[in-house]
Amino acid sequence: AQSVTQLGSHVSVSEGALVLLRCNYSSSVPPYLFWYVQYPNQGLQLLLKYTSAATLVKGINGFEAEFKKSETSFHLTKPSAHMSDAAEYFCAVSDNTNAGKSTFGDGTTLTVKP
Amino acid sequence: DARVTQTPRHKVTEMGQEVTMRCQPILGHNTVFWYRQTMMQGLELLAYFRNRAPLDDSGMPKDRFSAEMPDATLATLKIQPSEPRDSAVYFCASVLTGSNYGYTFGSGTRLTVV
Q1: How far apart are CA B17 and CA A113, in angstroms?
Q2: The pLDDT of residue B100 is above 90
Q3: Contact (CB<8Å) B105/A102
Q4: Angle at A109 between CA A105 and CA A112, to 5 degrees
Q5: How far apart are CA B48 and CA B26, in angstroms?
Q6: A-to-B residue pairs, Cβ atoms closer than 8 angstroms
Q7: Which pick of A16, A78, B32, B105 has the fewest CB atoms within 10 Å?
Q8: Are A82 and A72 in contact (CB under 8 A)?
Q9: Between chains, do B31 and A32 touch, taking CB under 8 Å as contact?
Q10: Which residues of B touch A9 (CB under 8 A)?
Q11: Helix, strand, or coil here: A81?
C-alpha cells in the first residue's frame, strides 16, 4: 500500500522568496516519487521525479526536490519564486508494480505575491 | 513532444443526455487512466486499463459511467444519463508500465451538465 500526504493545501510566498512545498509518503517497497504542476485550465505536467538514483533531483523551471528515506519525505523547493510559478502542485508515489499506478496527494496551491 | 489528446475540450449538455469523452494515449504507452477533478473532491481516479484490459473501475459510478478501450489508440469514457453532479474536468493520462517517466496527462475535457 502507498499513500501521500501534502502538508498545507495553500502556500503563499512573495516573489523572490523561497518556495517549500511539503510531501511525505508511505510505501511498502522502494518508491518512485513525482511532482506534477497544474496551471489553470491545463492538465498536470511532470515537474520532476525520483527513481532511486540521486537523492537530490532537479526539474524544470528551477525546482528541485530531495528524497529523504529516513524522513519519508520528498519536499519540493525553489530558491526564488516567480509570478509564473503560481499553480497547483501534486506529489505522487508509485511502486511501479501495480500496473504503473501512482497515488496522488491532495495538491498544494501556490500563490505568489508581487 | 508526444501528447495525450482529449476531445472535446469543452462540453455543455443537458441533464439526461449521453456524453462521450475520448482520449488518444501516447503511442506505445500501455496503461491508460481516467481521472475526474472537482474543487470539492480534488483529483479522483475513475478507472484504468493496461494493454486495453480494465484493471480497476471501482472509482466510477457503475450505473451511469462506462469506460472502454476499443483499440490501443483510443480510450472512451461515457456517461449515460448525465447529471449536474457530473460537472467536472475529466483527465486522461497514459504511461508505459515499468518505465519511470511518470504520467503524461491530456488537457482535459471540461464537462458542464445543466
Answers
A1: 43
A2: no
A3: no
A4: 150
A5: 15
A6: 56
A7: A16
A8: no
A9: no
A10: none
A11: coil
Residue A22: CB atoms within 10 Å: 17
C-alpha cell at A47: 515537474
Q: Which of residues 55 through 84 in chain A touch B, CB cutoff 8 A?
A: none
User: In the numeric block, which cell numbers belong to residue A64?
Assistant: 528541485
Q: What pLDDT, in 10s, does the model give residues B45-70?
A: 999 999 999 998 889 988 999 999 99
Q: Which residue has the cell 527513481?
A: A51
Q: Which of B103, B107, B109, B112 would best serve as a mutation to test chain A binding (most A beta carbons within 10 A)?
A: B103
pLDDT number for residue A113: 97
Backbone angles phi and psi of A27, in degrees to 5: -155, 140
Mean pLDDT by groups of 10 residues along chain A of 114 residues: 92 98 91 94 93 88 95 97 97 74 93 96
Interface test with A, best of B33, B100, B109, B110 (most A CBs within 10 A): B100
